[in-house]
């Protein structure tokens, strides 16, 4: 029989893991079909780093840059997101990204576009377990339908490796407004606009 304290520790750990899994579930709100990663060595490998919290340490699914160390993710959501935090798990070597730049609602950026000022930038530390969270500016990232993440550099390797990108925040369904059809009356129909005074005028005076 396991000691009581051990059971409590396990229960607390499982609860914390479940809570973190809920917090980092925004990957389920990504329009995966239109998600793209520029300069990835293997096509569509960039999509695999957006995965469940419990799979964050899975080293079988990762993206590696191709021509140089840069990676650029274009991430469309199926609704509106209030983004509050990001976790990046990289390689234990110098292939871990060293900087991260965020761009809000600028659809399908290219490397020619990243010369403009980012909405927020971070200096990254090596994180192989997912213990470091980078908090975003809540006012800036309060209404996001498209997020671009640019990793311009790493710690000195010729290529960059990323295993997991976790997005924390709140999701709101996109509102779809239907077209309202109105019929306007071009010529008034007198029968639809009866005036009670006319009846009094036409009535004979006793």
From TrEMBL:
One GO location term (cellular component): cytoplasm
InterPro entries registered for this protein in UniProt: Galactose-bd-like_sf (IPR008979), PITH1-like (IPR045099), PITH_dom (IPR010400), PITH_dom_sf (IPR037047)
Domain PITH residues, every copy: 15-187
Protein family membership: Belongs to the PITHD1 family.
PANTHER family: AD039 HT014 THIOREDOXIN FAMILY TRP26 (PTHR12175), PITH DOMAIN-CONTAINING PROTEIN 1 (PTHR12175:SF1)
Any GO BP annotation: positive regulation of megakaryocyte differentiation
Species name: Dendroctonus ponderosae
Protein name: PITH domain-containing protein
PROSITE patterns recorded: PITH
């Amino acid at each position: 029989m396991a000691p009581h304290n051990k059971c409590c520790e396990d229960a607390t750990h499982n609860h914390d893991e479940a809570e973190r899994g809920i917090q980092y579930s925004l990957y389920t709100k990504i329009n995966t079909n239109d998600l793209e990663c520029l300069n990835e060595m293997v096509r569509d490998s960039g999509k695999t780093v957006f995965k469940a919290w419990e799979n964050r340490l899975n080293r079988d699914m990762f993206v590696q840059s191709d021509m140089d160390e840069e990676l650029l993710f274009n991430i469309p959501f199926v609704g509106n997101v209030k983004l509050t935090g990001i976790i990046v798990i990289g390689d234990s070597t110098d292939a871990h990204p060293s900087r991260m730049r965020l761009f809000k609602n600028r659809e399908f950026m290219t490397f020619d576009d990243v010369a403009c000022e980012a909405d927020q930038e971070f200096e990254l530390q090596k994180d192989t377990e997912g213990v470091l969270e980078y908090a975003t500016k809540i006012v800036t990232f309060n209404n996001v339908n498209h997020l671009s993440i640019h990793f311009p550099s790493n710690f000195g390797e010729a290529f960059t490796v990323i295993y997991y990108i976790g997005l924390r925040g709140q999701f709101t369904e996109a509102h779809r407004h239907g077209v309202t059809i109105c019929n306007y009356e071009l010529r008034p129909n007198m029968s639809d606009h009866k005036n009670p005074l006319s009846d009094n005028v036409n009535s004979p005076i006793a």
